[in-house]
Specification:
alpha/beta; Peroxisomal Thiolase, Chain A, domain 1; OB fold (Dihydrolipoamide Acetyltransferase, E2P); 3 domains; 15 helices
Length: about 500
């Protein structure tokens, strides 16, 4: 029976009823368990978290975001191990945001197609890395030939051929390019920009120090984070190691979603129930170099405006927030897109640099942490955002411990995002002058080595190019180069 306070709520309303996490941080090469075992542990923890663990046996779908591992159908093993062998399985490749898996669960439950869905993902990258470095062999579960019931693959390009040929070689470099454009748009000097990033990340680090599941909670102040050092090597100007998502972690997270009616039937503790009020995404893919305004994310702006219209108040009024945090640019651009305080610290975990950034799974980690905070504190609502790719596909969710006055806002706003995103053609083979619109510097042995730019051509097109001139790269870490005219020869910068 539903609690009396929810008697008016549609019994098909999707709710989050259980969250679970599992982690290990072992120093002995080969010790610990594989990613699949961590996922099973997180799923069981999510079942226990409901107060009615038998609900795991009623799971009808297990959805898993693909990780750095090679399992063919990890959801099948999880389903069998939690007592739901008949559950359908989903494996979503990189480029399918985790918010998409949550939204699919909400939609299927709301439509009456499913009652209980488990979404689970995880990594054991630290275990694998330590074993490889020590020459220790670790054997993961062999699922040779296994295939999921639904294998989801993204469409569109995260990184284009033009970008790769021009020097887009890493995620840190791509986000650093975006951050440089934001610096220039807001009229900051190089030093002011580095100060802002360091202060933001120092705030995230402080939160990680209070987060019980953080992999790297050690105190790191703004001065340490700002300056390259042997303990904080430069990666892609202005980013150092501890500005970047730390992927070598062993972490898993699971979310149990069901109908309000199923929660009542299985005896879920009402104090564990959390209502999604907003579940938005955009499946539109616009590569970085093709965005006219490199410092903006119009697709996330579209999601933010829709969420605010539905809620009837600004997202800035929501006290709890977990803004996706792979690199500083992701947070900084989202703060502006969603009109959040730019001097705020929008995290419950400490972010991917300090809490840990398991590949293609952090949204589940952040959602689990946010649900725990939401239940425990006096706050009434919480915001969780998703970044897929290089600010390609956004996701935005708002949760509360009580249902909203309106039904869940559930939508893919790709068409609106497309219309809102001004674009330029990114071309290969440009030869001649171009004006620098964004740049970053790459390093070799902690010394500036390459200078990569996104530049605007006289014909109103975009090009991407790189110089191997170390002196020029060093200069770009000391002087603002955006706005300068350079000469491009295909994918190379001249002089």
């Amino acid at each position: 029976m539903k609690p009396p306070r929810w008697a008016h709520v549609d019994p098909r309303t999707p709710v989050l009823v259980g969250v679970g996490v599992a982690s290990q941080h072992l120093d002995e090469p080969g010790a610990g368990v594989e990613a699949l075992e961590l996922m099973v542990a997180a799923a069981r923890s999510a079942g226990d978290d409901t107060g009615a663990p038998d609900i795991l046996g009623a799971v009808q779908r297990v959805a898993v975001p693909h990780g750095s591992w090679h399992y063919g159908d990890p959801g099948r093993v999880v389903a069998e191990r939690v007592g739901a062998p008949a559950a359908a399985t989903v494996l979503a490749e990189t480029g399918i945001p985790q918010q998409t898996l949550l939204n699919a669960a909400h939609g299927a439950i709301g439509d009456g197609k499913l009652d209980v869905v488990l979404i689970v993902g995880g990594e054991a990258a630290r275990r694998a890395t330590m074993a490889r470095r020590s020459g220790v062999i670790v054997l993961d579960t062999d699922q040779h030939g296994a295939t999921p019931d639904d294998h989801q693959r993204p469409t569109g390009e995260i990184v284009t051929r033009v970008e790769i040929e021009g020097g887009f070689s890493s995620a840190p470099g791509s986000f650093a390019l975006i951050d440089s454009a934001l610096r220039h748009a807001e009229g900051r000097t190089l030093d002011e920009h580095r100060d802002e990033i360091a202060q933001l990340w120092a705030g995230f680090n402080t939160v990680a120090g209070r987060f019980p599941h953080a992999a790297f909670p050690e105190p790191r102040d703004a001065a340490f984070l700002r300056e390259p050092s042997t303990a904080n090597r430069p990666i892609a100007f202005p980013y150092n190691k501890w500005h970047c998502a730390q992927l070598n972690v062993d972490q898993a997270a699971a979310i149990l979603v069901c109908s309000l009616d199923a929660a009542a039937r299985f005896g879920v503790d009402p104090d564990r129930v959390v209502f999604p009020l907003v579940a938005l995404e955009s499946s539109s893919m616009v590569p970085v170099s093709q965005r006219r305004d490199l410092h903006r994310w119009p697709a996330m702006e579209v999601l933010g405006r829709a969420a605010e219209a539905h809620l009837g108040h600004a997202l800035a009024e929501i006290e709890l927030a977990e803004v996706y945090s792979c690199f500083p640019a992701a947070v900084r651009v989202q703060q502006r897109a969603l009109r959040l305080p730019v001097d705020g610290v929008p995290t419950n975990t400490g972010g991917e640099a300090f809490a840990g950034g398991p590949w293609n799974n952090f949204v589940l980690q952040g959602t689990a942490a946010t649900v725990e905070r939401l239940r425990a504190g006096p706050e009434s609502t919480a915001l969780v955002t998703t970044v897929s790719g290089l600010l390609n596909k956004p996701g935005l969710a708002v949760y509360a411990t009580q249902p909203g006055p309106e039904p869940l806002l559930l939508a893919d706003l790709a068409n609106d995002a497309d219309r809102a995103t001004p674009r330029l053609d990114a071309i290969a083979g440009h030869r001649g002058p171009a004006r620098v619109a964004a740049y970053t510097v790459g390093y070799e042995r902690s010394e500036p080595a390459t200078w990569t730019v996104i530049a605007d051509t006289p014909d109103g097109e975009r090009c991407v190019a790189t110089s191997d001139d170390a002196d020029l790269a060093r200069q770009a870490t000391r002087e603002e180069m955006i706005g300068l005219t350079v000469r491009v020869d295909g994918a190379r910068l001249e002089g």
